[in-house]
Amino acid sequence: MVERSKVRVLIAKPGLDGHDRGAKVVARALRDAGYEVIYTGIRQTPEQIVEAVVEEDIDVLGISILSGAHMVLIPKILKLLEERGIKPNEDILIVAGGIIPPDDAEELKKMGVAEVFGPGTPLQAIIEFIDKNVEKLKKFHPS
Amino acid sequence: MIDELIERLKKGDRKAVARLITLVENEEGKAREIVKRIYPLTGNAYIVGITGPPGAGKSSLLDKLIREARREGLIVGVIAVDPTSPFTGGALLGDRIRMQRHATDPGVFIRSMATRGSLGGLAKATNDAIKVLDAYGCDIIFVETVGVGQVEVDIVKTADTVVLVTVPGLGDDVQAIKAGLMEIADILVINKADREGADATYFELSLTLDFEAEKWERLGWRPPIIETIATTGKGVKELWEKIKEHKKYLESSGRLEEKRRFRIEEEIKTIASGIIASKVEASIKEGELEDLIRDVLAKRIDPYTAADRIIKEVM
By the 8 A CB rule, do A110 and A76 touch? Predict the structure, then answer.
C-alpha cells in the first residue's frame, strides 16, 4: 500500500454553494486517516482548482458539490485537467461527493470520475476506496 | 526521470516544478540528486519568512503581500507550512484558502507543505523546496511557518528577512522580553490592529526593542513595528516598503552575504547530522536495541553507555 502521508489529497468546492460542512468532515477524516489534505475553501472556479492540483502535485481530487451544478462544473474541471495533460485514473484519482443523482453519477464516471459518494457514505468507505485505487496511479510506479 | 523534470523546469513547466518539490519531500536520495543538479541555478530569489502564533493572520497578510510583489512584476513563490499530526501522520493544509485568488496568476506558485515531524516551524524539505522554486525563476519566495509558540525559530536559518506577525493582547511585557521568537524578527507586525490593546502591544514591543538600543545602533537596523489589518489591507503597503528597505540594508551593509554564509553553514551541519542519524538508525541490529533497553531498565548500564555502544559501530 502507498504510504498515506505521501498521498496528497485536494478537497475542492467549486461553484457558488457555500455548504462546506461535508467537505470539511471528509477533509478532517482523511487527515485523521493519515493523508496530507489540502483544503482550498468555498466558491472556487474550476480554473483555481486545476491550478491548485498542478502546484500541489495532487493525487486525489475530491470535489464536493451541493448546488446541482455538477454536470457543468465537473466536466469543466475534467476538460481543464486534460488540457494540462493530467489524465484521470492515471495521473489523478477524481472522486465526487454531495447531491448527485445516480444517472448523473453514471455519466460522470464515464467521463473519468472514479467514484461518486452520496450522502450517508461511511467515511471508512471513502478511505478504503482511496487506498485501493491510489496505488494504480503512475506516480507511485516510477518507470 | 529527474533530468527530464529539470529540463522541463528550465522551460517553466509548472507540473515539473510541483513534481520536483514532491520528490525532494518524499525521497532523500532523489532530493540529493535534484539539489546537486539545480544548485547552479539558485541564489537569485530573495527569501522572506512570515512567522507568528496561530491565527495571527499570517496567510491573510501574505495574500496581500503577494499582490504588492505582483504589482512590481516580481515572480512570486510561496511555501506555506502547516503541522503534521504527530499521532496519525496526516495533515490538513489550509493556508491556501486565503491565497486562492492568486492561484490562476501564472506569476505566482503556491505550495503547501506539512511539517512531517520537524519541530522548528518548517518542514525538513523546506530548504530544498525553496531551491526548486528559486531555480524555476522566482524573484521572491515567501515562506510561511506553522503557527509558532516561542522557540520555533528555524525560519531564521532560511529567510533573508523575517517578519514576525503578532496580535494585540497575547500577554504582558514579560512575554515580550522572553528569549526566542522576538529575537529573530527583522520586522514586527501587529496585525488586527483595530482590536483593543493594539496601542499597549505597540508600547510593549517598542520598550522591548529599547532594551537593545545599542545592538540596533551597531547593526544599523532597528526592527520597525508596523500595525496592519490584513483583511482590509491597511498597513500592508508600509510593510512591503519595509521589507524592501530591509533588503537594501542587508545588501549595502554586507549583512546579506553574512546571513547567507550562516545559512549555508547551518545547512551543511544539518545535512551531515541527518546522514549520521540515518546511519545510526540503519546500523541498529535487530534485538540489539532491545538488549540495551533491558540493561538500562535493570540499571546495569546507563543511557549514555547504551548510546555509545550503538554509535561505536558507525564511527
Answer: no
Give me the long-range contacts of A82-86 (CB less than 8 A, separation at least 24): A84/A50, A84/A54, A84/B15, A85/B15, A86/A50, A86/A53, A86/A54, A86/B15
Compute CA B60 distance to the chain's CA centroid, rounded to the nearest angstrom: 17
Gap between the Cα atoms of B205 and B77, Å rounded: 30
Q: Which residues of A touch B84 (CB under 8 A)?
A: 5, 36
Closest residue in B to A12 (Cα) is B97
Q: State pLDDT tens for residues A17-52.
A: 888 898 999 999 999 999 999 999 899 999 999 999
pLDDT of amino acid A56: 97
Residue in A closest to B24 by C-alpha: A6
% residues pLDDT > 90 (chain A): 89
Domain range for A98 is 4-140
B26 and chain A in contact, CB less than 8 A: yes
| Distances B113 to A4, B34, B120 between C-alpha atoms, Å | 15, 18, 14
Distance, in Å, from the CA atom of B31 to the CA atom of B253, rounded to the nearest integer, reads 34
Which amino acid belongs to residue B217? E
- Number of structural domains in chain A: 1
Rounded distance between C-alpha atoms, residue B80 and residue B62, angstroms:
10
User: What pLDDT, in 10s, does the model give residues B140-180?
Assistant: 999 999 988 777 788 988 999 999 999 988 765 556 556 57
CB-based contact B128:B31 (threshold 8 Å): yes
Taking all residues of chain B, what is their mean pLDDT, rounded to a whole number?
92
**Nearest chain A residue (CA) to B99:** A40
Q: Does B117 touch chain A (CB under 8 A)?
A: no
CATH of the domain at A40: 3.40.50.280
Asked if B295 and B306 touch (Cβ cutoff 8 Å), the reply is yes
In order of their start, the domains of chain B are 1-41 (no CATH), 43-253 (3.40.50.300), 269-312 (no CATH)
CB contact under 8 A, B89 and A37: no
* Cell output for B49: 519568512
